[in-house]
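Hey, resending since the last one bounced:
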Amino acid sequence: MKTRKIAAALCMVMLLCGLSGCGKKETIDQLAMPQAGDQVATISVAGYGDIKLRFFPEAAPKAVENFITHAKEGYYDGLTFHRVIRDFMIQSGDPEGNGTGGESIWGEGFGTEISKDLRHYRGALCMAMSNQPNSLGSQFYIVQAGAKNMSEVYLQQMEAQTGVSMTDSVKERYLKNGGTPWLDDSYTVFGQVYEGMEVVDAIAAVETDENDMPLTPVIVEAITVGTYSE
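The structure tokens again:
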């Protein structure tokens, strides 16, 4: 009788997992194209082209509001990508141009917004921060790392080192698209490049100094916000 009860309980758990995912299934398709009517933005980079972004306000509302408001107010116009590391990321959003400046639209820093559904896949738009809590301001970065160094063993090592587990679908996406999985659960992912990764790659390939600053400034002409239409 006890065995039957245990079996029945296990069957119920399996059924519920199949219906709800038991926390295993991602509810946001991060790498999908935006839908008609979604708010999107375009980063126009002088001499390089456009980087087009979609956002995830349901998971990172403050980061999305902060970025979009700054963009609409022209805060980012004329700033540079001040930190560029090939096979890692490109970073901008600092009016000081050296990684020390910037502020949120509220005049003070805010905290991270972490979602299990959003990962540091190649093309992820993320908030930069210091090692202090509530230090998110205006600086952002775009993950440029590809998949050339990805492997099942590597992802298993990342899980062991960070303590952040990955579902099979997350691992498949990292293996196919690349990214920086060691940053998951630590930094806020609030958007994703859906067009223009060739521009990100071109910026990541520029010559830099010992502080990872491009020798020739890479300038954001403007960030425009609009509505996606197919």
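Confidence is low (pLDDT under 50) at residues 1-23.

Sorry for the duplicate.
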